[in-house]
Predict the structure.
Amino acid sequence: MEPDILELESFLPYRLYRLADTVSREFSRIYKDRHGLTRPEWRTLSGLGQHGTMTATELGEQSAMHKTKVSRAVAELERRRWLTRTADENDRRVEHLALTKAGVAAYRAMVPLAKAFERELLAKLSVEERAAVARAVAALEGALEEKS
């Protein structure tokens, strides 16, 4: 191969992106079929389900979503009455987002499906491979955190 040519198929960032996108699309079929959710809506629902009340900025940081995607997801979950917004007492520009009872119920219904999806995916790997993947992902995350 020529040194000035990049073979994408063997370039680690590209391979990781493709893998993450494929896994995300496969999992999205589950929550789309069950609840008609988009990926940003699922990430918003799951972020609030896991962490409780958050601001849109916190949700964007936690889920690595752009603020416009967060905003659209929040609007849709609010339309479904799965989420409420409460203005911050000290700064009216900030809203605190929380799941309603219906939102919590939807989230709780999805948790076992998410865990089953993960178990099924990991079952394709040996115990040693699972441990190696966990270590490698943690090492890459740590290295990138140090860099930024």
User: Anything to note?
Assistant: The mean pLDDT is 94. The chain has six helices and three strands. The two ends are 32 Å apart (CA to CA).
